[in-house]
């Protein structure tokens, strides 16, 4: 991936604006109305839900544990004299949830490096080298293991419904009975496209069934 794309993705993470289903509804409500999280099929797929979805829990736990292992190995490498890591391990940043009052692992995914973490590390080592490495590890792991996987899932699902980039552009800002549509044929085409997608979602292929077929 190009460095400009990596930067764009990091900025979008920071401002919680990756293209989740809830985010897509803002531009394509007609298309995504009623859609739920592609992984569990139960909750609305908000930014926070991508990382706290039950279906991603074991993966995220693995990433979190590997992050702690990596951090400890870096600390041992840079300062073999440290013997007690309990203050570090007790930080709230290792919790996999969202919390309005405390920084959690979800905030690390966004790219935040909380002061409480840097304060502890500062006592022990040359901070910057470790922070850069840890930050990059979390970014690469959550991006590859959770976000990219989720995106290929959605892509496959959309393809099965005939939703292409071109079709999305056609449907963007579309509202029935507005004045933009001036030919009957155009109107008919747009209703057809929407109806067939809706039928697929609501009556044809059940989303959950589709997902289980895809994974089995
Ligand atoms: Zn979910």
Automatic annotation (TrEMBL):
The keyword Metal-binding applies. Keywords: Metal-binding. One of its GO terms (molecular function) is metal ion binding. This is Reverse transcriptase zinc-binding domain-containing protein. The lineage of its organism: Eukaryota, Fungi, Fungi incertae sedis, Mucoromycota, Glomeromycotina.
